[in-house]
Amino acid sequence: MALSIRHLLGLENVPKEDIQLILDTTPSFLEVLNRPIKKVPTLQGTTIVNLFFESSTRTRVSFELAERRLSADVVNFAASTSSVNKGETLLDTARNIEAMKVDMVVMRHSVPGAPHFLSRMCTSSFINAGDGAHEHPTQALLDMYSIRQKTGALEGLNVCIIGDIAHSRVARSNIFGLKTMGANVAVCGPPSLLPHEVESLGVRVFTNLDEALHFSDVINVLRIQLERKAGAAFPSLREYRETFGITWRRLEGLSNPPLVLHPGPLNREVEISSDVADGPASIILDQVTNGVAVRMAILYLLGTRKESDS
Ligand code: NCD
What we know:
38% of the residues lie in helices and 15% in strands. By secondary structure, it is of the alpha/beta class.
């Protein structure tokens, strides 16, 4: 089996068979992560550049671990220490890096569509590690894998994404991926943090948290993106916490408390309280572990794919 896609730029329009293949390939890499020597020779001789134009800790470290555990040669590029500071264009930066003969590029950029643009101009295989508020496909794949690991299937599951949907690439990629896999997807948040076209993505919309919690088998709680001025969308953080914050007091009354995910970083006691984040319904740290294995599966499937596969 091989992927039909050459790049992983987003989950919109990625066929179910490709998502299924990535999720089904992940357990064998999870097994590698549990060995005393956590390394396989799969991508020996492959060079991967991590091109990060926007700050990131977890995603960058997760990709780098995944790459090194597959024995790839890894080069890290951070915009703050590069010629981007000297006025070089994005395309020149990418072409210069490619001229050094790299095979794959993992890229994060604040402009939606930036990796899509470069993937058309360059010959390497591109993985989008987050482009503005557009897509973050590897996060959605690791979320879907983590849900499936606990529930056994995604088909027919009620999944609600809660919080700052408007600024969230994680929300968009989750909506596309989960819907492709047959889940019933909803979003919940203050109207000021829901994008205008959100119903047109085929999701249910809740503005009342208790109704959303009754619907949900799984909730994916999003960070309030204060750096993107999300704080201006509601009166105060205290009010947000009271209306939309996920606390154990809110979950304990439910006959079936939902499984709780959060992509991190957490704003503790804002969108999620510590008694939930560190409590029995939370799979937040499983997401982090699974993230490395899911990224290994993606790098393996894209890195060993032949042109004749499509
Ligand atoms: C997310 C991101 O960067 O989009 N985080 C992540 O990838 N770990 C979500 C967020 O920043 O809130």
